[in-house]
Amino acid sequence: MVPWSTAASFENIAPFPYFDLGEYRFPYGTRGAFVPTVADASPYPEGMVYTARHKVSTTGQGDAHDVTTVVSQSIAAAKQRAGVATVFVVGSTAAMTTIEFEPGAIADLNRLLETLAPRAGRYEHHLRWGDDNGSSHARAALIGPSVSVPFADGELLLGTWQQIMLLECDTRARTRELVVQIVGQ
Fold this sequence. Notes:
Elements: E1 49-57, E2 64-66, H1 68-78, E3 83-89, E4 94-99, H2 103-116, H3 124-129, H4 134-143, E5 146-152, E6 155-156, E7 163-168, E8 175-184
Antiparallel strand pairs: 1-8, 2-7, 3-5, 3-8, 4-7, 5-6
């Protein structure tokens, strides 16, 4: 068995993703792993990644939008039967999550966010930039800008009462860009 430290020669490796280490051994005698080469830099055949962009107009902090239908339509447009849909909102003051999209659950989430990051709180962001959306950045960071949902037979694998939601965290109305990227077959 070749020792780990000499298992591969790194002298002739081109920058990623165009490299080929050939045949080599890992510690304890295990063999190979997927190593991308020019011929197979992506594990998906061409056309297996589909990206759609959508615009969503919001009214300000706490405004919620059910975007499940938009994601389902993107899957249909991609003509893919199974895979993962990632939904990403562009910007640092909006968030994506899943929730039972009904007024009570949305009010509960907004009340929780007001407790964790009160709009009237003291934020260094306000002092530095002279604006009023420090709570917006904090709320968006807590939730995150994206959600990934698997799909099979062309249908999102969501629970009965689970929808994909865009939540506006900024203190003013915005037009948001929603990016839906589908990876599948």
